[in-house]
C-alpha cells in the first residue's frame, strides 16, 4: 500500500455502531409483512448491499413496501441510539487536522447517513457523503466511489484508501481500483465469498497506528 491522498470510509459498523438498530428495524419489517424474523446472526450475515439492490431479492413484489417499513422503524430510533465506534471520532478528527481529504461511501440511504453525521457533529470532516440512491448505482459499484471523490480533484486509485468492516467494502475498493482496509477482527466476506483486504486492523487504535506508519499525524 502507498500513502493515501484521500481516505473514504464505510459508515455502519466502521464509524458508528448500528447492528442492533438495523436488526430491530429489519425484525419489525419482517413482522409487518407476516414473515418469521431473522436472528441477529442472520442479519449480520446478510446486510451488505443497499436496499435498492438487495430488497427485491429478499422481498420480491413487496420490496418497495418493505423498504418504506424498514426506514419508518429505523428513523423512529436511530439518532437516539446512534453511537460512534470506539476511537472513530479521534480517527476522523486527527485526519481532518492533518488535512486529509475524507469521504463516506455507504450502502445506507444517503440522507440518513448525512443526518447521522450532522447529529454527531462530523459533517465538516467529509467532502462528500455518498449513500444509497445518491447516484444511478450504489456501492460496491465504482461510480459510488467516484461520486464521493467528486470535487476533491483526486481520482480513484491505489492512493485512495477505502476503510470498511465487511467483504463488500473490499469488493467496493477493488472495483474502484482503491486500497482496502478492514477494521475488525472477523475475516471479511461478501456474501458467501471470502475477501482478502490489502490490510486489516482490529480497531481504531490500531488503524491510527497504521496511519502513523505512513507519516500521517494522528
What would the keywords be for this entry?
44% helix; 6-stranded parallel β-sheet; 218 residues; alpha/beta; two-stranded antiparallel sheet
* Arrangement of strands in the largest sheet: 5-4-1-6-7-10
| Number of strand segments | 10
Please estimate the helix content.
Answer: 40-55%
H/E element sequence: EEHHHHEHEHEHEHEEEEH
Gyration radius from CA atoms, angstroms: 17 Å
Largest sheet: 6 strands, parallel
Topology of this protein?
Elements (H helix, E strand, L loop, with lengths): L5 E4 L6 E2 L1 H14 L7 H7 L4 H9 L3 H19 L1 E2 L3 H10 L4 E8 H11 L7 E5 L9 H8 L10 E5 L2 H10 L2 E5 L5 E2 L2 E2 L4 E3 L2 H9 L6
Parallel strand pairs: 1-4, 1-6, 4-5, 6-7, 7-10
Antiparallel strand pairs: 2-3, 8-9
Helix pairs in contact: 1-4, 3-4, 7-8
Describe the protein's architecture and organization.
This protein starts with 5 loop residues before the first strand and ends in a 6-residue tail after the last helix. The longest helix has 19 residues, at 63-81. α1 (19-32) packs antiparallel against α4 (63-81). The chain has helices at residues 19-32, 40-46, 51-59, 63-81, 88-97, 110-120, 142-149, 167-176, 204-212, and strands at residues 6-9, 16-17, 83-84, 102-109, 128-132, 160-164, 179-183, 189-190, 193-194, 199-201. Strands 5-4-1-6-7-10 form a six-stranded parallel β-sheet, sandwiched between helices. The protein has a two-stranded antiparallel ribbon with strand order 2-3. 44% of the residues lie in helices and 17% in strands.
Amino acid at each position: 500500500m502507498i500513502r493515501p491522498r484521500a481516505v473514504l470510509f464505510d459508515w455502519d459498523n466502521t464509524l458508528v455502531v448500528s447492528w442492533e438498530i438495523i436488526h430491530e428495524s429489519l425484525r419489525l419489517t419482517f413482522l409487518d409483512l407476516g414473515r418469521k424474523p431473522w436472528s441477529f446472526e442472520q442479519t449480520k450475515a446478510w446486510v451488505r448491499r443497499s436496499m435498492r439492490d438487495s430488497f427485491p431479492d429478499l422481498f420480491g413484489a413487496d420490496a418497495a413496501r418493505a423498504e418504506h417499513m424498514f426506514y419508518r422503524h429505523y428513523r423512529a430510533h436511530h439518532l437516539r441510539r446512534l453511537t460512534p465506534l470506539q476511537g472513530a471520532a479521534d480517527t476522523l478528527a486527527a485526519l481532518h487536522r492533518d488535512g486529509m481529504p475524507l469521504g463516506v461511501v455507504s450502502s445506507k440511504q444517503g440522507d440518513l447517513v448525512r443526518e447521522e453525521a450532522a447529529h454527531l457533529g462530523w459533517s465538516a470532516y467529509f467532502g462528500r457523503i455518498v449513500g444509497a440512491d445518491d447516484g444511478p448505482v450504489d456501492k460496491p459499484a465504482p461510480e459510488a466511489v467516484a461520486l464521493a471523490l467528486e470535487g476533491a480533484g483526486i481520482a480513484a486509485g491505489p492512493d485512495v484508501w477505502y476503510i470498511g468492516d465487511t467483504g463488500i467494502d473490499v469488493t467496493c475498493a477493488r472495483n474502484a481500483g482503491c486500497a482496502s482496509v478492514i477494521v475488525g477482527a472477523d475475516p471479511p466476506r461478501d456474501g458467501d465469498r471470502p475477501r482478502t483486504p490489502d490490510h486489516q486492523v482490529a480497531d481504531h487504535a490500531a488503524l491510527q497506528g497504521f496511519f502513523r506508519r505512513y507519516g500521517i499525524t494522528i
